[in-house]
Write a structure and sequence with these properties.
The protein is built from eight helices and 14 strands. By secondary structure, it is α/β, with parallel strands linked by helices. It has two domains: about 150 residues, Ribonuclease Z/Hydroxyacylglutathione hydrolase-like (Metallo-beta-lactamase, Chain A); about 130 residues, Rossmann fold, CATH 3.40.50.10890.
């Protein structure tokens, strides 16, 4: 998951989120075809993906097309990962490996997510209350990943309008066979006066919560905003300007990360991203040989030498 162009023969790109992909890579790409297509759609010029002996990709259940990688049946890198089935994503199958490189975005004990089904139940109840009052609702999350999941989980409500960036990504994901309904775009709904017929649901990117579009919708239609992210459990991030927030995440929480470690049964663990240091300390308390990869660390070879 190079964040800037580096010289290498092969590059692994786990998924198409902007913090895991970069343009200008000149070499062989190991990734899912979905990741390459989505990355290109988002403006990153990735070459075609290749297969390679000794390399096996596993679904990571993070977003559409996301993968983990097993190298020579020995090194397993999770990429961003979630272990619970939800919506159209299945729970991942994890291999055994002697070396585990695990993401630790939520690797702190304070991050314990509720059952996704319970969150969906709570949101549906709240939407029902808003609809009874004739109040429109905006469901907000990351344009790639969370937005597709929201599109799927709450597709039974009518009418649903979709902000254009999400609509384009939904169309691409539908071309992969992801069962997402086709909705009217926000711009067409606005242009044709459909927003006047309340209530309705709008699927919008989380960055719009503090933008002009949402300000307009609040002032004219009294829209109520829902924000979905694991970071809502962190007071520092809070509601991100939304009226309601829900800890619906596309990552493992703290206990899920421990489950990953136990399933992989590694001899050595490297933690990366987020609470890498904190999680490695917790693993050491449990008897594991674990250490964080420094932020500046680029090559696993600096830590690992094959026999």
């Amino acid at each position: 998951d190079p964040k800037a162009p580096v010289k290498a023969d092969y590059y692994f790109v786990s998924h198409a989120h902007v913090d895991h992909v970069c343009g200008g890579l000149k070499g062989n790409i190991i990734a899912s075809k979905e990741t390459v297509i989505l990355a290109r759609e988002r403006g990153y010029s990735l070459p075609d993906t290749i297969s390679l002996d000794g390399i096996e990709l596993y679904d990571s259940s993070h977003i559409v097309g996301s993968k983990s990688i097993l190298i020579d049946d020995k090194i397993f890198y999770t990429g961003d990962i979630a272990i619970h089935a939800r919506g159209f994503l299945k729970a991942p199958k994890l291999p055994k490996a002697s070396i585990l490189v695990i993401e630790t975005t939520y690797g702190h004990p304070k991050y314990l997510f509720p059952n996704p089904a319970k969150v969906v139940e709570e949101v549906n109840k709240l939407i029902s209350e808003m609809y009874e009052k004739g109040v429109p609702v905006a469901l907000c999350g990351y344009p790639l990943g969370k937005a597709q999941m929201l599109s799927y989980l709450f597709s039974t409500w009518e009418p649903i309008y979709v902000q254009e960036s999400i609509m384009k990504l939904n169309e691409t994901c539908r071309s992969f066979g992801i069962p997402l309904k086709s909705f009217t775009s926000y711009s067409k709904a606005k242009e044709n006066g459909l927003l006047e017929k309340r209530p309705w649901i709008l699927l919008a990117p989380s960055y719009s919560l503090k933008g002009g579009m949402m300000k307009f919708l609040k002032e004219k239609y009294d829209v109520v905003t829902f924000y979905f992210s694991g970071w809502t459990l962190n007071r520092r991030f809070g509601n991100n300007g939304a009226d309601y927030s829900f800890p619906l995440s596309d990552h493992c929480d703290y206990m899920d990360l421990i489950k990953v470690v136990k399933q992989v049964e590694p001899e050595k663990i490297f933690t990366v991203h987020g609470y890498a240091k904190e999680f490695s300390i917790e693993l050491k308390k449990m008897g594991y040989d674990a250490e964080p990869l420094p932020v500046s660390q680029t090559w696993l070879d600096d830590f690992y030498r094959s026999d």
